[in-house]
From TrEMBL:
Residues 364-387 are annotated as: Disordered. It holds the Pfam family adh_short. InterPro entries: KR_dom, NAD(P)-bd_dom_sf, SDR_fam. One of its GO terms (molecular function) is oxidoreductase activity. Belongs to the short-chain dehydrogenases/reductases (SDR) family. Residues 67-250 form the Ketoreductase domain. This is SDR family oxidoreductase. It comes from Nocardiopsis alba.
Amino acid sequence: MRGLRTTLTLAGARWLWRRHRRSRESTPVSAGRSGAELLAWGAAAAALGAGASALSERRRARRMNGRVVLVTGGSRGLGLQLAREFGAGGASVVICARGRENLDRAVAELTGRGVEALGVVCDVTDPEAVDSLLDDAVDRFGRLDVVVNSAGIMRVGPQRTLPDDAFVQAMDVMFWGPFHLSRAAMERMRGRGGTIVNVTSIGAYLSVPHLLPYSAAKHAWAALSEGMAAESGGSGVRVVTVVPGLMRTGSHRGVVFSGNPEREYAWFALAAGAPLLSVSAERAARRIVAAAASGRGFLVISPIARIGLAVHGVAPGLTQAGMRLVGRLLPGAPERVEERSGSEAADSRIGRLVGVVAALNERAGRRMNQSSRAEERRRDVDSGKDG
Ligand SMILES: NC(=O)c1ccc[n+]([C@@H]2O[C@H](COP(=O)([O-])OP(=O)(O)OC[C@H]3O[C@@H](n4cnc5c(N)ncnc54)[C@H](OP(=O)(O)O)[C@@H]3O)[C@@H](O)[C@H]2O)c1
């Protein structure tokens, strides 16, 4: 009897132990399964959310039907994509830039898409040219509803290697340009209504090492934009401040690199083309047009920019320490300072390697009407700068 009890107890214990082991073994599997299910549900919800937000952005863009929109820097990059997006919403567009060739190509493309488009050669640093740009827009389309300040330039390199003129130029294009245009547009829109959209940058709020002229000018512009928004209450004019993080516009080819140009080009082009760090120009433009149509006053584009801005808001010392670290990782100022455009730097061995890794931004450049090195060479030859 005792033997039977022992046998039964041992068999029961064995059964319990096996069951426990099986349940322990099966726990991670079932947890994995429910984890996978959760992941699938999460992905489906995210896809639905993204779809719904794209649909509502499209709906808002359609509010632009019949409006007249002026985009500075609309010949290529984000400005061109904004013109396409406003045009797709039914607006007529006026785009301006300094270079005639890209401008003509952009107008031809917009017209081919069925968008009523006018291209005006205009340097935004010239207040008189800016005034006549506004006249041209109203003469051609009879009204002006939205002005987008998107024109921008960039010089990359350690501050020690940059001439004072780099700061003067940055302020001219990205502070005084939007200053004159916004003020003149505001006067014309007062009482009748309108929207001014200022494309600043996350660099306006987080000063990025090796981008000091850009960050300083954008900082001043962001302050101007927010101040204008604060003062415009009751005027019928809305001011939208846009703060993009990195966008894949293909603009790295047109940037001027100083110090050790190839190495500066390498870090910049890699960051600007990294999928997790940057957003597509198409996505950015959709969001900006939706903000212009919906009356939103402040728009931050890209998750990284949102996180950076939030952290800077609560712990500026922390972001400063982060930027100091970034500064230490970037190339130092060499003895012999050189300067090259992005297209030239891209022609080097390291540049070609970077081009393979940053393929997304290279492709974006072709979609965004950015000039290739071959085109630049041809222009240099035509203008007698080469050979
Ligand atoms: N790409 C990014 O990652 C990024 C991130 C944050 C903010 N942003 C901002 O977004 C805007 C667009 O950037 P993007 O990458 O599209 O630049 P982009 O491709 O270099 O385009 C710049 C545009 O501005 C025009 N432009 C430059 N100087 C001008 C002047 N003095 N007068 C009139 N037009 C001028 C250029 O044409 P011409 O050279 O023929 O004049 C071009 O059409 C800029 O304000 C930039 O600072 C860009």
